[in-house]
Amino acid sequence: MSDSGSRDLARFIQHTLIAPGVDRAQIDKHAAECVEFGFDAAMVGAAWVPEMRKLLAGTDIKVATAVDFPYGCMTTTGRVAEMRSVVDAGAQEVDLGVQIGWLRSGEAQRFTDDLGQVIAAAGGVPVKVMLELPLLTPAERTLATDAAVQAGAKFVKNASSGAVGVATPEDVGWLRAHVPPSVAVKASGGITSEAQARALLAAGAALLGTSAGLKIVRGGELPATSY
């Protein structure tokens, strides 16, 4: 175990490895890093969930994945099927993309109904709804967040990745003030430094999603990335 850096942050970080071309050697290394530093979860692509469950068996580290990521534009039927598939594969938490195009088109009920069906398909596995706040108007933010809560989300997220927007204390604070205490907030998007991580936690985030977890817990910093 490392004795330097910011090890206390590891328990808040969902250590993320979702990218094209990830191979078994990288998955093995990712699991080892989760164990060494004590990250909250290993966030991996759906195809690697069964392998990661085996690698992390006997630990307290959760295996998480994403559904309809990064675009959130599948049909509801497809999203439901994907959710059932990842849960059957052993995912212990799921981050869910959203069809903000419906919301921005004034189809709030369609947006809400979709979330309800997909979250129900998780069968009680905690779902984190990626709200893409940087792409929404203030009114749309409220509608999206209320829909996620109504649909049974256990967490709301400011964004799916840094490609949408960098996580800010302002967005996290808004979410924390808007949702009930029973719903937690996960911050995601371009989280690359210890100072940024601590500011997001202070604003009300319960978890941080980042592919820069190693640098953060070691007290280092990376250039901004997509996740």
Mean pLDDT across the residues is 94
So what's the overall shape? Answer: globular
Main pleated sheet: 8 strands, parallel, barrel
- Major β-sheet strand ordering: 1-2-3-4-5-6-7-8
Report how far the terminal alpha carbons are from each other.
25 Å
Number of strands: 8
**Computed CA radius of gyration, to the nearest angstrom:** 16 Å
Count of helices?
A: 9
Order of helices and strands: EHEHEHEHHEHEHEHEH
Helix content: 40-55%
In CATH terms, the superfamily is Aldolase class I
- Please give the CATH class: Alpha Beta
Strand content: 15-25%
From the 3D coordinates, which CATH architecture would you assign?
A: Alpha-Beta Barrel
Please give a structural write-up.
The protein has nine helices and eight strands. With 227 residues, the chain is α/β, with parallel strands linked by helices. The chain has a single domain (7-217), classed as Aldolase class I (TIM Barrel), CATH 3.20.20. Strands 1-2-3-4-5-6-7-8 form an eight-stranded parallel barrel, surrounded by six helices.
Summarize the structure.
The chain is α/β, with parallel strands linked by helices and 227 residues long. It has a single domain, classed as Aldolase class I (TIM Barrel, Alpha-Beta Barrel).
